[in-house]
Write a structure and sequence with these properties.
Length: 397
């Protein structure tokens, strides 16, 4: 049986809303052509309470799949919830959809509508021409509880068939940030294939000597090094145990670096414009992130560099993001200097952002998620704990 693994569509992701939909659609239709069953390990939605428009996108995608003729069928299901379809399109909720226990999340809704099989804490069997494949799913949960859930549920394979363990969590070897994250050798044993979501870059690894695959997201969310690769999904053939990565036509992403070496903001702006024109010459409106590093010409500060103007001027040619964290001024920076450098009429928020960026730079921040986005997230009215948790989730998603 050919099993396709597609992950992290992030439907409704505001920044690249159309890409999220179009790229999920392409991945799903390619997967339906080339495989017998589809597994989606979480984050179909970017938000646990998607708007009706975003729900409509998901319904359209999955209704199209339900209408196809499938050679494989889901022939048994036992689990927390109920199953309403035999179409072998199987999903679990991820971190972005997770809600309190006992409360419906948007993946539950698609399951209730019979548009997919919701495999949250469930064991199911797919059959095609006499071959059976078992899938043991666990919905994405807080990483500090994953170990406890595995100990409690003790997921086990079913004898006499190919077994897949299907989940959505951080893994310590891939994200070594917290001891809460499970190590691959702590995953339940005895499965023939481990399929995870959550991590947006593609990963081919092993767990208990068996393939452990992460397809990565179908849409770009973190503009950082290592994300330039085209998006896509794996197809695994259960008989030969071979797998391959199928690329989709995802929007091109290019990371560019400019060394400033004593140049003035006007000279750097000219350099940026030259690069933007060159990189967008193919007419495919790529995403370009330009990182600027080095010491500015005497008397200038990073605030003198007008990135907003450049971003809007080239909006039709490319999605441009400019990172100025690596810029140093010859003069003393700090709060007073930032305030002095603030143009008349600039808002306190811009001033705050300047201070925030200075602080990040002092602390050698290198996670490359846009500081403006972090600042926006931190400036909501929610409680400090909630906001900090959200930002950490965002950094690790
Ligand atoms: Mn995700």
């Amino acid at each position: 049986m050919r099993i396709a693994m597609l992950s992290d569509f992030h439907l409704g992701y505001e920044r690249f809303r159309e890409d999220a939909y179009r790229q999920a659609e392409e991945a799903l239709s390619q997967a339906a052509e080339k495989s017998d069953a589809i597994l989606i390990p979480g984050d179909i939605f970017d938000n646990r309470e998607p708007s009706p428009d975003v729900l409509a996108e998901a319904i359209t995608l999955f209704r199209n799949l339900s209408g196809r003729k499938w050679g494989a069928k889901v022939i048994s299901f036992s689990g927390e919830g109920r199953n309403f379809t035999s179409v072998p399109v199987i999903a679990i909720p991820g971190t972005h959809e997770r809600r309190a226990e006992g409360v419906e999340d948007p993946v539950d809704l698609l399951g209730l509508a019979g548009l997919l099989v919701d495999a949250t804490n469930a064991q199911l069997v797919i059959e095609k021409d006499g071959e059976r494949v078992a899938v043991r799913g666990l919905g994405g949960i807080a990483d500090d509880r994953f170990r406890e859930i595995i100990e409690r549920e003790k997921p086990r394979p079913i004898g006499g068939m190919f077994n897949i363990f299907f989940f959505h969590q951080s893994i310590y070897e891939l994200l070594p940030f917290s001891k809460d994250f499970l190590r691959t050798d702590e995953l339940p044993e005895g499965f023939d294939l481990y399929v995870n979501g959550h991590i947006h870059g593609r990963v081919e690894s092993r767990a208990h000597g068996k393939p452990f695959l992460i397809s990565g997201s179908t849409v770009l969310t973190q503009l950082k090094d290592g994300e330039q690769e085209q998006k896509g999904f794996y197809i695994f053939e259960t008989k030969t145990k071979e797998y391959s990565f199928n690329k989709i036509n995802s929007r091109r992403f290019v990371l560019l670096r400019i060394r400033i070496d004593g140049r003035s903001p006007a000279e750097i702006e000219a350099e940026m414009e030259r690069l933007i024109k060159k990189e967008s010459a193919a007419g495919d409106r790529p995403i370009l992130r330009i990182e600027i590093e080095g010491v500015l010409k005497d008397g200038y500060r990073s605030l003198d560099l007008n990135q907003q103007e450049i971003i809007s001027r080239y909006r039709d040619l490319a999605v441009v993001e400019i990172g100025k964290l690596g810029i140093e001024s010859k003069q003393q920076t700090g709060v007073q200097a930032s305030a002095d450098a603030l143009p008349d009429g600039a808002s306190i928020k811009d001033f705050g952002l300047g201070v925030f960026v200075d602080k990040l730079r002092e602390n050698k921040y290198d996670l490359q998620r846009n500081p403006t986005e972090l600042f926006e997230m931190l400036s909501t009215d929610e409680s400090k704990d909630k906001v900090v948790k959200k930002v950490v989730d965002r950094l690790l998603e």
